[in-house]
Write a structure and sequence with these properties.
Blueprint (H helix, E strand, L loop, with lengths): L1 H14 L8 E4 L3 E3 L5 E3 L2 H8 L3 E4 L15 E4 L7 H6 L4 E5 L11 H7 L4 E8 L10 E8 L6 H18 L1
Parallel strand pairs: 1-4, 5-6
Antiparallel strand pairs: 2-3, 6-7, 7-8
Helix pairs in contact: 1-2, 1-5
EC number: 2.1.2.9
InterPro entries: Formyl_transf_N (IPR002376), Formyl_transf_N_sf (IPR036477), Met-tRNA-FMT_N (IPR041711)
Organism: Hortaea werneckii (Black yeast)
């Protein structure tokens, strides 16, 4: 999901530099995976950020982390860390979160997997403000419902919801 949103914001920056003057990406560090933890798995958005020559910051916690420069807006998409109030409050326009469910339904991690496990006929995407102390409890700004096609996989839903969320974010 995050790759779709990053590309949409990057394209907006290319078209309308007055709206998006710069983009930095914060992602989790690469992790060791596989038998014996011998392979290093790169976070997919890291490669896209590098390709687009965007500022990249890999962190596992916000403790003692300070942004390298002032910023206007924080956008979180499938990030997995709670952005602390000090950063949200430090952003001129606060923070936005894109969540792959129709909140308040399926708050928290793995909403796509929960949609499939519960055999839901529909799902959706939510754009909300970031809450300073709780995941997925911000003010809902926009939502779009989408049907769940039969025999969908998590990857299918990401590929369906990702572009919907990216468009929502870019127009927002």
């Amino acid at each position: 999901m995050s790759i779709y949103s990053l590309i949409a914001l990057y394209e907006l920056q290319q078209r309308r530099g007055d709206k998006v003057s710069s983009i930095d990406v914060i992602c989790r560090p690469d992790k060791r995976t596989g038998r014996g933890l011998k392979q290093i798995s790169e976070v997919p958005i890291k490669g896209i950020a590098s390709e687009l020559e965007l500022g990249l910051h890999q962190i596992d916690t916000f403790n003692n982390w300070q942004p390298p420069k002032p910023f206007d807006l924080i956008v979180a998409v499938s990030f997995g860390l709670l952005v602390p109030a000090r950063l949200i409050n430090g952003a001129k326009y606060g923070g936005l979160n894109l969540h792959p469910s129709l909140l308040p339904d399926l708050r928290g991690p793995a909403p796509i997997q929960h949609t499939l496990l519960r055999h839901r006929a529909s799902t959706g995407i939510t754009l909300q403000t970031m809450h300073p102390t709780r995941f997925d409890h911000g003010m809902i700004l926009d939502q779009e419902e989408a049907p769940v096609p039969p025999h969908s996989t998590p990857e299918d839903l990401v590929d369906m919801l990702g572009p919907l969320g990216a468009r929502m974010l870019a127009k927002g």
